[in-house]
Amino acid sequence: MENLLEKLKKYTKRLIIILFIVGLMVLSFFYFGVYSRGDRVGKVIKISEKGLLFKTYEGQINMEGFGAVRSTNIFSQTFEFSVEKSRADVIENLKQAMNEGKRVNIHYIERYWLISWRGESKYFVRDVKILDN
Q: What is the pTM of this model?
């Protein structure tokens, strides 16, 4: 009987360790994984630092004139995105393009989960190119 209890304890510990490792792998996949990649073109209409505890950079581009949505409301064709704080060059390029009224081509990735300390959007700008008007 004692031998059986020791085996049960041993297998229970192994099962808990395996479940912990599998859970950690799943969480890592959803945290670091990329669901999609893409590009959008438009004019930057907003870039701001937001947040009470965790500061994030949030922005919008206006994609007017591309025929995606026919509307008189200019904000119906906006794309909202976040920028990681570590990408200072991207933030500066977006601010420069907004101040000069130039169009930009943004390359972004879409994450699986929306996590509050990362940003308010699942779309994260990785690169920005200022286009000639």
A: 0.76
